[in-house]
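Let's practice the habit of predicting before peeking. Look at the sequence and jot down your guess about where helices and strands might fall. Then scroll down.
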Amino acid sequence: MLRIIILVALACIACRWALGKWPWDYLRSQSPRAAELKQARSLLGVQAGASRDEVIAAHRRLTAMVHPDRGGSHQAMQEANAARDLLLGEMPGLRDGTGG
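Done guessing? Here is the structure:
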């Protein structure tokens, strides 16, 4: 029995070391807001904690590729704009409209 407990503990530590999360973290569901933020960051290609300038620059790069005048679609532009707005809205000091 002790051998099984030690093996389970080692497996948990290996999971944390290799994947960066404890095994039980995979059992929790992600909040819808967190999932939206992750998708927005993925779409724009920025990391968590990206600065305002990084988000804006990533948005400009993406819209240069997906703009309808360049063969893109209106839906792709709407998604890019929504991702930018969501990420900028999450930044501290920007929710009250003061700009920083």
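How did you do? Residues 1-29 form one domain.
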